[in-house]
């Protein structure tokens, strides 16, 4: 560096490179007088690839007339570093019989010199191979990739190769720097060698009836790598083992085949058995190049069966006996016998059943006949399972025993009658069909489908049955029938022909919903009916009112002077409210029935008898008859005596006679009383009572005071239950 005005020069360092953290001061110096820059020692490019220095020019008095000058110094590379491999040892593996060109692996090397120069251009080559046979692999000079070169790699001949490889810089030129490395290539095994038996024939012996016993070991030769799937032997019996009496397995430690007997052999059936055994490997066989397919190796084994005195044998070993349900005790259900294998017959063999088993059957000691010792019912206790396995022992003369099993299976029987689950129904005026459903405790085929039939001919003419499904039908009337209760006998026949008789009680009621009729039935039903508190109070009050009326009538009629006329229901002022003790207003009406002395007491009264019936006492010479002429009935019955003279009965009317007279007339009056002058129903004829039954058709008496209709008492022919209850209560009192 030079300056026209300055004479003294100084520099400051600014180095860049791997050694930037070190102090590079002292690597360069500058002459103060000339400005020449010199290196003080050798500089390593790999340590300091480049430097920057700042030069200052100053006058003797220290003045800097010029701007500092920056210089960059780059260190040029020299081929002073040899290439090196990234690993000390390269290990690869390849399958034997691999084709040429198959990549085995890749070696890599590095060089610290400047990249992309001849100093770092590397070349690879194989220096040597061990064993020193025909070269088996090739090494790509630029990439370092190792490939298969030999057409046949045989692990059985050479299991591994060791190669010395070299890497050289300067593109492999002789003056380049180089380094060597080691590569080991292991040849992996394939199953290219089939196993073969050491012997083509074997012989062995075994006693009859021995099971799970080893009788022979066989071995094979396999050139593949021991312990690999290519050498692991797999044995099989390919002929002579149709009954599966033998089994052969592989001992993993020795690779031998172990032949065992898993099912007892019978000397009497076969004195020797000849087996053919074959062997394969665990891995599939791979045919080597330029070789022929080998046949499977086989060997024959002759097994001699030794005779042993053995016990009886049941044939079959498991006997199934089907028993019908509920068979009688002692029923012969079968025979189970055993044979002596030595003689082939059953002579001298005894049978018995060991204790501790289900106690269903017994076996006859000599003949082997099997009989039931209890009634077998699938609905009882342990028999619900439906079957039981029973072990039977057979003992020969020498005390040898054999065992067999009897499987007793209880077959379902037709022991239960089909029955209808619900037998009481309520049918309203809509006559909706009733669904009858039957159940049968038996199983198929002794249960469904069921056949229903009405057994009563008279009821069958008015009721019909319609099929719904296999176990249900619909019951409905054929036409109009009167209200009432019907007990309909219905027979149900199951699929086995067993008939169950059922009685269906149908209450045909004048209702909209069955609950209405059910309430009436609960309240007014005969027998065990429970009345409510309010109903009992109403009955007591009614009885007291009736008693008061009777006393009043009797008091009025006892004088014998005053003639009271009883008007019919349509007379004006039926009920007269009076707060005085004076008699009521005399009413003259053509409907008046004079009340005269009757029998001994005059008037009409009520008498209760021992049979809880009450009768109305009739007056002598007078009857309750209509004043409208002879076309109306009289209350009494006129009997004709001898000589054409009419004779009155014994001065009494029964309750039924009084009922038949008053009921139709009162019904018509009440019906007419419900209407006003415009033929509209009055609003007060239906009153609410503290009673849980239906309202009376008689309605209220308030609307009947001023009505004048024709006399008709048909209503009393059908009294409501509460009137009958009131009457019965009065009779009892």
UniProtKB/TrEMBL annotation:
CDD domains: Cadherin_repeat (cd11304). One of its GO terms (molecular function) is calcium ion binding. InterPro entries: Cadherin-domain_protein (IPR050971), Cadherin-like_dom (IPR002126), Cadherin-like_sf (IPR015919), Cadherin_CS (IPR020894), Cadherin_Y-type_LIR (IPR000233), Catenin-bd_sf (IPR027397), Desmosomal_cadherin (IPR009122). Gene3D superfamilies: Cadherins (2.60.40.60), TCF3-CBD (Catenin binding domain) (4.10.900.10). PROSITE patterns: CADHERIN_1, CADHERIN_2. The keyword Manganese does not apply. Keywords: Calcium, Cell adhesion, Cell junction, Cell membrane, Glycoprotein, Membrane, Metal-binding, Repeat, Transmembrane, Transmembrane helix. It is a single-pass type I membrane protein. The chain crosses the membrane at residues 531-554. It is found in: Cell junction, Desmosome; Cell membrane. Residues 1-85, 86-197, 198-314, 315-420 form the Cadherin domain. PANTHER family: DESMOCOLLIN-2, DESMOGLEIN FAMILY MEMBER. This is DSC1 protein. The lineage of its organism: Eukaryota, Metazoa, Chordata, Craniata, Vertebrata.
């Amino acid at each position: 560096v030079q300056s026209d005005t300055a004479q003294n020069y100084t520099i400051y360092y600014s180095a860049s490179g791997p050694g930037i953290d070190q102090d590079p001061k002292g690597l360069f110096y500058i002459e103060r007088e000339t400005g020449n820059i010199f290196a003080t020692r050798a500089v390593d490019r790999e340590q300091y690839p480049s430097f920057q220095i700042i030069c200052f020019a100053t006058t003797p008095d220290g003045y800097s007339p010029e701007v500092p000058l920056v210089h960059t110094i780059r260190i040029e590379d020299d081929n002073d570093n040899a290439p090196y491999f990234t690993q000390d040892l390269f290990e690869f593996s390849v399958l034997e019989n691999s084709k040429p060109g198959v990549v085995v692996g890749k070696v890599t090397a590095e060089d610290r010199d400047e990249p992309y120069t001849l100093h770092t251009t590397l070349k690879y080559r194989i220096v040597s191979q061990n064993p020193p046979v025909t070269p088996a692999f090739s090494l790509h000079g630029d990439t370092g990739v190792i490939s298969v070169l030999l057409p046949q790699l045989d692990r059985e001949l050479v299991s591994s190769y060791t190669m010395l490889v070299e890497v050289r810089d300067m593109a492999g030129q002789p003056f380049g720097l180089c380094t060597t490395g080691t590569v080991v290539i292991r040849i992996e095994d394939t199953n290219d060698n089939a196993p073969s038996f050491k012997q083509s024939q074997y012989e062995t012996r075994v006693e009859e009836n021995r099971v799970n016993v080893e009788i022979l070991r066989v071995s094979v030769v396999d050139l593949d790598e021991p312990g690999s799937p290519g050498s692991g032997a797999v044995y099989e019996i390919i002929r002579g083992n149709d009954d599966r009496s033998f089994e052969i397995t592989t001992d993993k430690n020795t690779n031998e085949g172990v032949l065992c007997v898993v099912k007892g052999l019978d000397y009497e059936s076969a004195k020797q058995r000849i087996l053919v055994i074959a062997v394969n490997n665990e891995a599939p066989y791979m045919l080597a190049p330029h070789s022929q397919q080998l046949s499977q190796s086989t060997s024959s084994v002759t097994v001699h069966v030794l005779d042993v005195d053995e016990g009886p044998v049941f044939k079959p070993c498991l006997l199934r006996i089907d028993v019908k349900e509920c068979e009688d005790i002692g029923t012969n259900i079968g025979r189970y016998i055993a044979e002596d294998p030595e003689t082939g017959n059953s002579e001298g063999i005894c049978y018995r059943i060991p204790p501790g088993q289900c106690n269903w059957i017994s076996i006859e000691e000599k003949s082997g006949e099997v009989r039931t010792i209890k009634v077998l019912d699938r609905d009882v206790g342990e028999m619900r399972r439906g079957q039981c396995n029973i072990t039977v022992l057979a003992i020969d003369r020498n005390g040898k025993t054999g065992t067999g099993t009897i499987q007793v299976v209880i077959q379902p029987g037709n022991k239960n009658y089909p029955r209808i689950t619900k037998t009481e129904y309520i049918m309203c005026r809509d006559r909706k069909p009733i669904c009858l459903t039957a159940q049968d405790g038996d199983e198929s085929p002794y249960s469904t489908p069921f056949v229903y039939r009405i057994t009563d001919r008279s009821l069958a003419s008015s009721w019909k049955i319609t099929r719904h499904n296999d176990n249900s039908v619909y019951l409905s009337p054929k036409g109009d029938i009167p209200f009432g209760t019907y007990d309909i006998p219905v027979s149900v026949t199951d699929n086995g022909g067993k008939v169950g008789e059922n009685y269906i009680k149908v209450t045909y009621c004048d209702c909209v919903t069955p609950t209405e009729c059910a309430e009436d039935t609960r309240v007014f039903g005969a027998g065990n009916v429970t009345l409510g508190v309010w109903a009992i109070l109403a009955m007591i009050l009614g009885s007291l009112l009736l008693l008061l009326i009777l006393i009043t009538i009797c008091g009025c009629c006892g004088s014998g002077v005053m003639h009271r006329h009883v008007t019919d229901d349509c007379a004006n002022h039926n009920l007269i409210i009076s707060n005085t003790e004076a008699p009521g207003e005399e009413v003259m009406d053509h409907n008046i029935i004079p009340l005269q002395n009757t029998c001994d007491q005059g008037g009409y009264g009520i008498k209760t008898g021992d049979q809880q019936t009450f009768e109305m006492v009739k007056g002598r010479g007078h009857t309750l008859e209509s004043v409208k002429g002879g076309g109306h009935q009289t209350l009494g019955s006129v009997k004709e005596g001898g000589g054409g003279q009419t004779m009155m009965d014994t001065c009494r009317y029964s309750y039924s006679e009084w009922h038949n007279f008053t009921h139709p007339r009162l019904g018509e009056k009440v019906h007419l009383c419900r209407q006003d002058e415009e033929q509209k129903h009055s609003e007060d004829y239906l009153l609410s009572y503290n009673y849980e039954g239906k309202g009376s058709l008689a309605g209220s008496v308030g609307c009947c005071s001023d009505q004048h209709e024709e006399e008709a008492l048909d209503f009393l022919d059908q009294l409501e239950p509460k009137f009958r209850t009131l009457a019965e209560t009065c009779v009892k009192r």
